Amino acid sequence: MSARATRFASSDGRDDTILPFAVEPLDVRGRLVRLGPAIDAILSRHDYPAPVSRLLGEAMTLAILLGSALKQEGARFQLQTKSDGPVDMIVVDFDAPDRIRAFARFDRERLEADADAFDADRGLLLGDGHLAFTIDQGGDLSRYQGVVALAGQGLGEAAHEYFRQSEQIPTLVRLAVAQSVTSEGARWRAGGLLVQFLPDSPERRRLADLHPGDAPAGATVHAIDEDDAWLEARALTGTVEDHELVDPMLSSERLLYRLFHERGVAVFEAGDVRESCRCSPERIRSMLRSFSPGERLDMIGDDGRIGVTCEFCSSRNSFDPEEFDAAE
Fold this sequence. Notes:
Elements: E1 17-23, E2 28-35, H1 37-46, H2 50-67, E3 76-83, E4 87-95, E5 99-106, H3 108-113, H4 115-120, H5 122-126, E6 128-136, E7 144-151, H6 155-167, E8 171-182, E9 185-197, H7 228-237, H8 242-246, H9 252-260, E10 266-267, E11 271-272, E12 274-275, H10 281-289, H11 293-299, E13 306-309, E14 316-319, H12 322-327
Parallel strand pairs: 5-12
Antiparallel strand pairs: 1-2, 1-10, 1-11, 2-9, 3-4, 3-6, 4-5, 6-7, 8-9, 13-14
């Protein structure tokens, strides 16, 4: 048996990275995401109210934590919410291995009516609805979609419920978003931690059945004792503070060492994250060609051209209607 090489945890803090890790004595694997310029570019471009920016930042962090498990280049992971809260839709696309884009749709009047409450509890921003995860691995492979209900809880809690119901993998997610003050002004930052219990024996990761809800009084509810290793891993993960997840002076390796040094933590090659949109003039032209001439006529603006603004990157493209008529 070969011994694993050991070294000091690096103090080199890098933004916009995904760091996979494992705590083998606890049968735990996970990923740590730290975001800086990429998330700041997206949130600053849209100039959302602060509560919406924080919620969208959490959604982007969660999408990267989950989507970065896809290894095939070109595979796509999408996180989408639809709900009855002031933020009625969020869409985040993560294109493996490193591209992220996102936008949120919200009702400004409802948001401003009780801004303090929404800023304090981002679950209220979402309200009731659903959170969907879609995986498209490309080629002939089938798409997969998982859906979990939103009932006034935050995105982290909804993710826990998804893993409990659909994947049945003991999972803990931590998300943090904040603004840091720099010499160039306020900048958005985010951090996220995903920890999963993956022992070789599936019996060790068994979870208790979901509460039946309508069981008669006195009925015995199924319960099991959680594995000691998972209890320890969950307790250690629970000690991480939000400010540690977004601290630019604390490297990802140092943070993982703080959490798991007593057991030993192994890190793997880090991946990068970059803000990038799929839109292009050619893609938009192709989309416009799918409309009928009558529909395109309704799109013509006062300047006599068809203008299209991308919801993700806010870029605007303008087209001469005659180029589509000539092609037909």
